[in-house]
Amino acid sequence: MARKFIFNLQAVLDHRMAIEEERKRVVAEMERERLAVEDRLRECQRSIVKAKTDLRDELGARSTVGTGQAVSLGNVRMQANASLHLVAKAQQIVLELAGVHRRLEAARRELLQATTQRKAVELLKAKRFEEWKRELLRKESAEVDEINVTRHGRNQE
Question: Following DSSP, what letter does each residue of 18-60 receive, concatenated?
Answer without folding.
Answer: HHHHHHHHHHHHHHHHHHHHHHHHHHHHHHHHHHHHHHHHHHH
